[in-house]
Amino acid sequence: MENVPGSFGTSASFALRFGQTIFSAASLIFMCFDYDFYDFTTFCYLATVMAIVTPWSILLALTDTYSVLVKLLPQELRVLSIVFAGDFVLSFLSLGGACAVASATELLATADGKICNGNLCIQYQVSAALAFLCWFLLLASALFNFWSLPSLYY
């Protein structure tokens, strides 16, 4: 198997997973600071997606840590395919949630200012920005794993 930097089981993959965990958890925390976010579907959607991304990234970060410490790369096509598919699907779910929250927050901020008063809109904007960063890292992980898939066929 060709050792692609950033593919599953490498130290670069651990760095990507660690960033995903930090950004998804921070996005979830900023979203849940206010209990009124349940009133809007887009905010609930982002909270749900980030609640799925966080344990996914933690689990794969632990697996990457084990692979780096033991110096044994996972060489099964099935495992790498599942990791790629999970990263790919979760990246687009987080992109959809981040875009939805960013547009809904902008709409609430410009609509008379009665709904989004104080720091509420700022919290939602920070949560959307962190979700965008998480999306970027998820997509990078998916692309690195997709790049290393053909080396397992031979």
What's this entry about, in short?
Helix content is about 75%, strand content about 0%. It is mainly alpha-helical and about 150 residues long.
What is the secondary structure topology, with strand pairs?
Elements: H1 11-32, H2 41-70, H3 77-110, H4 120-148
Let me know the largest β-sheet.
none
What is the number of strand segments?
0
- Which outline best applies? elongated
Strand-pairing-aware structural class = mainly alpha
Give the uncertain stretches in residue-range form. none
Please indicate the percent range of residues in DSSP E strands (runs of 2 or more).
under 5%
Binned, the helix content reads: over 70%
What string, H for helix and E for strand, traces the elements in order? Answer: HHHH
What is the end-to-end distance?
Answer: 8 Å
Radius of gyration: 17 Å
Mean pLDDT: 87
Number of discrete helical segments: 4
Q: Descriptors for this entry?
A:
154 residues, mainly alpha, 4 helices, 0% strand
Protein architecture, described:
- The protein is an all-alpha fold.
- The model has no long low-confidence stretch (mean pLDDT 87).
- It has helices at 11-32, 41-70, 77-110, 120-148.
- The protein is built from four helices and no strands.
